[in-house]
């Protein structure tokens, strides 16, 4: 039989014997059977698992929200402008603040960022663009991943041996070096991922225009990957700001401002919010305990704001 016998002309119509039900795409489908019913084993199991996941999620959030509410209740009662401008009080002394601890935390985190951010970005450029498949790049990547789980107290021990023993005293510089070790892996891994996410067409266009590799990195890759890089930097800063153990071995603590002779001095013991909370929370004096709660609230807000900024930058990168 030829194929021409199956062809239909433009004026031909479907035979009258064919009913419209033969052309119905939903013919034979039993819609009541498609409705969700807990009597069906699969539906019941899916509903049960969904309920268990929701309950577990709420249970995991209970400790978080309980801590936040406790900080707001206990620490919020002590908040005042004096906390940010005055020095920690002595035993049995009322009032006081922790302005020097806020300044010390900012200085040490700033020193850590000055060390970790440039070094981390350079390592990320090498691993993602210069020699992505080399043995050195694989070694650096492996070391960075190992450092993400590095105990923070060991970073303090390293800085103690490398800075404190050599300089002969505790200092903000030693604290910044210890924190930079904790910041470095986060900066390296997030920056490498951000650089890898830059479309290859942008690299090819720059090469086609005669740009050198240095120009491609400086003028194409870094500006495009900057939101992702800043996200990693913000997350690293948030982690470093809340560390206590490394600072016990490096910066120790101080009840005074970070100055010497009226000038800033990073080579002396330095107060920090984390160590202040650790010291004051165990004291038998009510005023110091209240200051510890207030300092904990301030520290949590600082870390929260930093994380929100990092998440905002990350979202901006995905949108772009």
Description:
This protein has 320 residues and is mostly helical. It has one domain (96-319): MetI-like fold (Orthogonal Bundle), CATH 1.10.3720.10. The protein is 67% helix and 1% strand. The protein contains eleven helices and two strands, in the order αααααααααββαα. A two-stranded antiparallel ribbon has the order 1-2. The chain starts with 30 loop residues before the first helix and ends with a helix. Residues 1-7 have low confidence and may be disordered.
Total number of domains: 1
**Termini distance?**
59 Å
Largest sheet: 2 strands, antiparallel
The CATH topology label is MetI-like fold
Strand order of the largest sheet: 1-2
Oligomer: single chain
Radius of gyration based on Cα positions: 31 Å
CATH superfamily assignment? MetI-like
Q: Name the average pLDDT.
A: 86
CATH architecture: Orthogonal Bundle
Q: Give the beta-strand count.
A: 2
What percent strand? under 5%
Helix content: 55-70%
User: What is the helix/strand order?
Assistant: HHHHHHHHHEEHH
Write down the overall geometry: flat
**What are the segments in which pLDDT stays under 50 over at least 5 consecutive residues?**
1-7
DSSP helical segment count: 11
CATH class: Mainly Alpha
Structural class, by secondary structure, is: mainly alpha
Short summary of the structure?
The chain has helices at 31-34, 41-76, 99-130, 135-148, 152-167, 172-196, 200-208, 213-241, 245-250, 273-280, 286-319, and strands at 259-260, 263-264.
